[in-house]
Design a protein that fits this description.
Number of helices: 0
Number of domains: 1
Strand order of the largest sheet: 4-3-6-7
CATH class: Mainly Beta
Order of helices and strands: EEEEEEE
Largest sheet: 4 strands, antiparallel
Radius of gyration: 12 Å
Number of strands: 7
CATH topology: Immunoglobulin-like
Shape: globular
Strand content: over 45%
Distance between the termini: 20 Å
Helix content: under 10%
């Protein structure tokens, strides 16, 4: 999966913001699924990223990203990327 995944502190609200950078040379659509293992809550987002573009998910999109959250990033052309928020 041609992505670079980072987090940053939310500037105007609680928690963190997930940043997904498309490191390919073409437009890509990702399905990002976030899961809180403590509460078992899960939510998916469609993110459309331009070549070398960065898209974000945070409390404004309805999810307060927190340390320990699990995430999956999927696109039909690539193997699913899985990780967790440090």
């Amino acid at each position: 999966m041609p992505v670079d995944v980072k987090t940053r502190t939310a500037l105007t609200g609680p928690g963190l913001v997930l940043q997904v950078k498309n490191v390919s040379t073409r437009h890509l659509t990702f399905l990002v699924t976030l899961k809180n293992p403590t509460t078992n809550q899960e939510k998916s987002y469609r993110l459309d990223a331009a070549p070398s573009g960065t898209v974000e998910v945070g409390y404004k999109e309805g999810w307060t990203v927190a340390s320990g959250d699990q995430l999956k990033i999927a696109n039909n052309d690539y193997k699913v990327w899985e990780g967790s928020v440090p």
